[in-house]
Design brief:
elongated, alpha/beta, three-stranded antiparallel β-sheet, 10 helices
Length: 245
């Protein structure tokens, strides 16, 4: 008898899950970009005009990430994986909170702030266990190092890999995202026909596309609640009583 395949949960996380760990979002009124227009710190043009300002901005964000800690949602997903479920996480976030919680399969669509990369060869990455990036820090090819993040207007290099993961999902869990940033927001279109999709977000009622189940709760409350059901039953399903609460 063939071995039964472990249920595969694919999780797509956005800024809302990290916000509960104290990391500012950029869409909130008091968020990350309130005093920093996108055009001045997060575009290739900004990098060409004023690399020192861009580096200073991301150095400050990097310090914020290092001070943050994984919350209950991050920990619940890691615990589900430890119980034997296949859990693949696709995140729009550039922090490492999923990894620090214990998740082993994390795909960062928009890069990782705790890494630097060459400004002439995107394949050349350098970990940043401490400190930041300064003008004059260069890669092995002699070019200035830049943050390993995807800026507005740049290609999302791992998008194809993310689409493949979503196409393999037994259940797609979307957490803490407005589903407004493209192309990431289009990932839901790649889910298998009939695979349930659940959106966990305080604004889920307003944000949820047709056919998506809604759990209008913060990530730190909604995700652990779902995980408790799945661990108890040993399968992925949509608990209607919970979703109606």
């Amino acid at each position: 008898m063939a071995e039964q395949r472990a249920p595969h949960l694919v999780v797509f996380t956005g800024a809302g899950i990290s916000a509960e760990s104290g990391i500012q979002t950029f869409r909130a009124e008091d968020g990350l970009w309130a005093d920093h227009p996108v055009e001045e710190v997060a575009t290739p043009g900004a990098w060409r005009r004023d690399p020192a300002r861009v580096l200073a901005f991301y150095n400050a964000r990097r310090d914020q990430v290092r001070q943050a800690r994984p919350n209950a949602a991050h920990k619940a997903l890691a615990a589900l994986e430890k119980q034997g479920f296949r859990v693949s996480i696709i995140t729009q976030n550039i922090d490492d909170l999923h990894e620090r919680a214990g998740s082993r399969h994390v795909l960062h669509l928009h890069g990782e702030i705790l890494k630097a990369r060459s400004s002439v060869d995107r394949r050349m990455h350098y970990p940043l266990p401490r400190g930041g990036i300064e003008l004059g820090d260069i890669c092995d090819k002699g070019s200035q190092l830049r943050p390993d993040v995807v800026w507005f207007g740049e290609e999302v290099p791992h998008f194809g890999e993310a689409c493949e993961l979503v196409s393999e999902a037994d259940l797609l869990l979307v957490v803490g995202t407005s589903l407004a940033v493209m192309p990431a927001a289009s990932l839901l279109q790649y889910a298998p026909f009939g695979a349930p999709c659940v959106l966990v977000d305080p604004e889920a009622e307003a944000l949820s596309p047709p056919g998506v189940s809604r759990l209008s709760q913060p990530a730190g409350k909604g995700v652990p609640a779902l995980v408790r059901h799945w661990k108890r039953e040993g399968r992925l399903w949509v608990p209607e009583i919970l979703l109606a609460s």
